[in-house]
Design a protein that fits this description.
Elements (H helix, E strand, L loop, with lengths): L14 H26 L4 H27 L6 H29 L3 H17 L3 H76 L3 H18 L7 E3 H18 L4 E6 L8 E3 L4 H12 L6 E10 L2 E8 L17 H14 L4 E6 L5 E8 L6
Parallel strand pairs: 2-4
Antiparallel strand pairs: 1-3, 4-5, 5-7, 6-7
Length: 377
């Protein structure tokens, strides 16, 4: 039989915040009543201040009890909590009103009213329903006071719940983004492997076992290097270029007389960070549509430069003019460049772009613009 351990519910309003709000409300009450007594020149203000503090202390205790009651309903609907707060405020107000009546009207009234007014005060106390009337009037004002605090507490509680939901939503969104990035990143490998196996098959069919063996060794190096890191981690540009050199070495076995490469990257940019294998589909695209369809040497150039806070990566070739129907800017361009666009959009949003240019005189340019990320290590 499986056992489930229930964790304690974490309150949305901290205990310290709740205590401070209660004390703040009752301190406001004391200040207002004290100012009213001073302005009205009430008698025995010192004695009344002491009794007022007693009522205030009792009010704090009663309100603290209401706080614990409301905490029990934190996992309920907001409407339920509002009804609970308004309903529970009624007995709380009545209790405080009774305490106030006893402290100011029943307990040793001589110290407040003096001997000259005590007989008159006793006549009021002996009237029918005097206590009920006094307590009812006081309870009404106390009710709105207690409800005001309860409303503040519910507002803080609801705001805390909203923040919790927002944090959870942010975590879920980040998890979804990470999952999508992993999926897109892993999508590169089978796509690349499919193209490489086609090349390997071509070498076998041409009875070129030495070239096929060299391609297999280079393929092993490429995968050992590319799969060793976390797909969500960025890599230095130097490492990304190294991976592309491994891939170009693989393709050089297939196109020994047609494939030329050039790397044009300043030394100060070799340490900047880029998403792993972000250049792979661009280089593959150049091999597939320029080198493979050309009968002359084609140079693939990988270059980088910085512009302000942006890093500009370019993969260009000088192959023959491409037909319009294989322009990578079109939706039918296949999985490679679409993968790059999706990865950039998922990771950087509008801060990163992929632009492609098909030159009429021949050649193709794919340009990546992404935030310039420096290695913090």
């Amino acid at each position: 039989m499986r056992k489930f351990e229930l964790g304690k519910h974490k309150p949305t309003v901290g205990h310290q915040v709740a205590i401070l709000s209660i004390l703040g409300f009752w301190l406001f009450y004391v200040i207002i009543i004290t100012l009213r007594a001073a302005i009205g020149d009430w008698p025995a203000q010192g004695e009344m201040a002491i009794r007022r503090m007693v009522v205030t202390a009792c009010g704090v205790v009663v309100t603290y009890g209401l706080y614990h009651l409301l905490r029990l309903f934190e996992d309920k609907a907001l409407s339920t909590r509002i009804i609970t707060a308004f309903t529970a405020a009624i007995p709380c107000a009545i209790i405080i009103a009774f305490i106030n009546h006893y402290v100011f009207n029943v307990y040793y009234p001589e110290s407040l009213f003096g001997e000259a007014h005590i007989e008159e005060m006793r006549k009021y106390l002996e009237q029918d329903n005097f206590m009920l009337k006094t307590v009812s009037e006081d309870a009404t004002s106390r009710f709105f006071f207690i409800v005001s605090w309860a409303s503040l507490y519910l507002t803080l509680s609801y705001a805390g719940e909203v923040r919790t939901v927002e944090r959870k939503a942010a975590r879920f969104a980040q998890a979804a983004q990470d999952a999508e990035l992993r999926s897109l990143r892993y999508q590169v490998n089978p796509h690349f492997l499919f193209n490489t196996l086609n090349s390997l098959s071509t070498l076998v069919m041409r009875s070129q076992p030495e070239e096929a063996e060299e391609m297999i060794l280079n393929l092993s190096k490429f995968y050992r290097t590319s799969l060793s890191g976390d797909p969500l981690e960025d890599v230095p540009l130097s490492e990304e270029v190294h991976l592309q050199n491994l891939y170009l070495d693989i393709e050089a076995v297939r196109f020994p007389d047609r494939l030329r490469t050039a790397i044009n990257i300043p030394d100060d940019l070799l340490g900047v960070l880029v998403p792993g294998l972000i250049l792979q589909p661009l280089v593959e695209n150049a091999i597939k549509h320029s080198v493979a369809h050309s009968k002359r040497p084609v140079t693939i150039t990988i270059s980088a430069r910085s512009e302000g806070d942006d890093l500009i990566l370019t993969v260009a070739d000088d192959g023959d003019p491409r037909p319009v129907n294989i322009d990578a800017s079109q939706p039918s361009s296949g999985i490679g460049l679409a993968n790059v666009r999706d990865r950039l959009d998922t990771r950087f949003g509008r801060r990163a772009t992929l632009q492609t240019v098909r030159l009429e005189e021949g050649g193709y340019i794919a340009q990546l613009t992404l935030p310039l990320m420096l290695d913090s290590q």
